[in-house]
Write a structure and sequence with these properties.
Elements: H1 2-14, H2 16-30, H3 32-52
Length: 53
């Protein structure tokens, strides 16, 4: 069991960048509607500020 835990830790250390990308992609997919709403609101707020000047 101790070797198994060490193997898992070694994999995490070697591939932490890939794991981070996977976690971010899964997070964006699960919160897609919120992310889309945030991007649209952000774009609209930028458009509104540039049009009023």
């Amino acid at each position: 069991m101790k070797e198994f835990v060490n193997d898992i830790q070694d994999l995490i250390v070697k591939h932490w960048g890939k794991l981070l990308v996977v976690v971010l992609v899964v997070g964006v997919i699960t919160n897609y509607n919120d992310v889309k709403r945030g991007v649209v609101d952000g774009r609209n707020s930028v458009d509104n500020t540039t049009q009023t000047k």
